[in-house]
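Hello forum,

I keep getting stuck at the same step: I have a sequence, I want structure tokens, and every attempt I make locally crashes halfway through. Rather than fight my setup again tonight, could one of you with a working pipeline run this one for me? It's a single chain of 130 residues.
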Amino acid sequence: MQEVYDFLKKAGTYYLATVEGDQPRVRPFGTVNIFDGKLYIQTGKIKPCSKQMAANPKIEICAFAGGEWVRVAAKAINDDRIEAKQSMLDAYPNLQNMYKADDDNTQVLYLKDATATFSSFGGSDRVVKF
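Reply #2:
Ran it on my machine without issues. Output:
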């Protein structure tokens, strides 16, 4: 899990894929945090991606950095604990002007049953599960 976190931080931007009905939806994200031994992402409950993950928690994340990429397949599980939200906001102080740990919009989700596949051009895939 730490290796996936480090890679996503290095990449800066990763792409989160969700499903809406039978249509994949992909958008850039940048928040990633480790809290309580789990890897978390963050969004707003008013956003379509939040509603898509509530309807179908299966997601994929993809990021590219330094000639290597990672794909992470997981279930995104909502965590409404204020401590989890505050940990994310502490890790990303620039979000604190838009989100608060105790508002009705801030959402953090941890990745469950995750499989990360690291790949590169010409190299062998390496799989990490957490």
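The two ends are 6 Å apart (CA to CA). If your local run keeps crashing, start a new thread with the error log.
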